[in-house]
């Protein structure tokens, strides 16, 4: 690799480009508009419902990106810096315009900042899924061309910026830069988890994804251990209890409904036929999880009570959102939860891939 190879100048980015769940574009747009305004960055969100992405147009997109860490965004699956919006691409040669767009954005520098990976993506939407074949074949053609031109390392390197090509249509592609340390580690922000044949329900995937999303490797090793004590509120049929049990925990599953017999036979789960909103433990637990279908503000209030009373050290819970003004409801619930805990908290929230009309929240008492 030529040590004097040109590198992309992210300061020339003209927008944030964020993937999201199809149908939740207005909610991500509202979140970006509000957060950008609070950070002092004028701009505006642009999207179409069902498109699976939102662009936030801003003069200093790179500066805004630094002020809005990906970990703080709730409705975004991925956060990128857009450096080119290519429309009217000729299907006979889509590579040349992309290389030209990169060359137009370069600044003299060393190869330390050349791209470490190439991801060619498409919206996770009904309209975007037919583009999957194009994205795959184009990526196979573009990688060797970029490596020959010195834009891409010979082997994947996650310590360097990532090049993203997002096909929004066959003749429309967005060229963007991703920071591996400030974004999702999965293409499109989608973890590829497989449903285990022994899992009692698909909801198990939500908790598995939450543990991967909210805790890094070191945190999972420290906070998800054998023989920890946990409670699962609204447990039936037992998907979340099953996940905790597989991580070696002893689980109290609270629900008036039945659990799968295999869970009861494990010897690691106690089933209490009680109301999860009323039950309380006799001593502080390591974990509490909750996936009850209930009004989000009521859930947030009850979750705060658990931390007020020191009934648990950390929790993962879901907030089922209304059909409209979901960002507003999310903000209200999270602010109320943090206020009512009466303790310094660490709170992380995200609409996970395996979520639907909900967000998932991780909360723990902040270290002093």
UniProtKB/TrEMBL annotation:
Residues 201-294 form the Ribosomal RNA methyltransferase FtsJ domain. Keywords: Cytoplasm, Methyltransferase, rRNA processing, S-adenosyl-L-methionine, Transferase. One of its GO terms (cellular component) is cytoplasm. Residues 93-176 form the Ribosomal RNA large subunit methyltransferase M THUMP-like domain. Its EC number is 2.1.1.186. The keyword Transmembrane does not apply. It is an enzyme of class 2 (transferase). S-adenosyl-L-methionine binds at residues 203, 236-239, 255, 275, 291. It is found in: Cytoplasm. Pfam families: FtsJ, RlmM_FDX, RLMM_N. InterPro entries: RlmM_FDX (IPR040739), RlmM_THUMP-like (IPR048646), RNA_MeTrfase_FtsJ_dom (IPR002877), rRNA_MeTrfase_M (IPR011224), SAM-dependent_MTases_sf (IPR029063). One of its GO terms (biological process) is methylation. It comes from the Bacteria. Its main location: cytoplasm. The active site is at residue 320. Transmembrane segments: none annotated. Residues 15-80 form the RlmM ferredoxin-like domain. It catalyses: cytidine(2498) in 23S rRNA + S-adenosyl-L-methionine = 2'-O-methylcytidine(2498) in 23S rRNA + S-adenosyl-L-homocysteine + H(+). GO terms for molecular function: S-adenosylmethionine-dependent methyltransferase activity. Catalyzes the 2'-O-methylation at nucleotide C2498 in 23S rRNA. Belongs to the class I-like SAM-binding methyltransferase superfamily. RNA methyltransferase RlmE family. RlmM subfamily. Monomer. This is Ribosomal RNA large subunit methyltransferase M. It comes from Montanilutibacter psychrotolerans.
């Amino acid at each position: 690799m030529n040590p004097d190879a040109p590198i992309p100048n992210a300061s020339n980015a003209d927008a944030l480009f964020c993937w999201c769940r199809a149908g939740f574009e207005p909610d991500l747009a509202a979140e970006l508009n509000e957060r950008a305004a609070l950070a002092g960055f004028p701009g505006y969100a642009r999207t179409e419902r069902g498109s699976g992405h939102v662009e936030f147009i801003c003069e200093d997109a790179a500066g805004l990106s630094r002020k809005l860490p990906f970990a703080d965004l709730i409705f975004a699956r991925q956060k990128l810096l857009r450096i080119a919006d290519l429309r009217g691409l000729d299907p006979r040669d889509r590579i040349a315009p992309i290389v030209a767009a990169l060359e137009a954005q370069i600044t003299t520098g060393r190869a330390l900042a050349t791209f470490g990976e190439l991801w060619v993506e498409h919206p996770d939407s009904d309209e975007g899924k037919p583009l999957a074949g194009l994205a795959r074949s184009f990526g196979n053609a573009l990688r060797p061309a970029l490596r020959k031109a010195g834009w891409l390392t010979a082997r994947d390197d996650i310590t360097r910026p990532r090049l993203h090509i997002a096909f929004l249509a066959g003749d429309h592609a967005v060229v963007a830069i991703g920071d591996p340390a400030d974004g999702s580690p999965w293409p499109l922000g989608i973890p590829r988890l497989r449903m285990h044949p022994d899992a009692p329900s698909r909801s198990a995937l939500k908790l598995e994804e939450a543990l991967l999303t909210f805790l890094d490797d070191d945190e999972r090793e420290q906070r998800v251990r054998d023989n920890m004590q946990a409670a699962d509120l609204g447990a039936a049929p037992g998907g979340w209890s099953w996940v905790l049990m597989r991580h070696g925990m002893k689980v109290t599953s609270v629900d008036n409904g039945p659990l799968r017999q295999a869970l009861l036979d494990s010897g690691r789960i106690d089933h209490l036929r009680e109301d999860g909103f009323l039950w309380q433990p006799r001593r502080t637990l390591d974990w509490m999880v909750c996936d009850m279908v209930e009004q989000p503000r009521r859930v947030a209030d009850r979750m705060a009570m658990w931390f007020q009373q020191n009934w648990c050290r950390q929790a993962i819970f879901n907030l089922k959102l209304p059909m409209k003004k979901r960002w507003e409801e999310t903000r209200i619930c999270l602010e109320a939860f943090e206020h009512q805990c009466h303790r310094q908290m660490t709170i992380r929230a995200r609409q996970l891939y395996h979520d639907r009309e909900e967000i998932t929240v991780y909360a723990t008492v902040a270290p002093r």
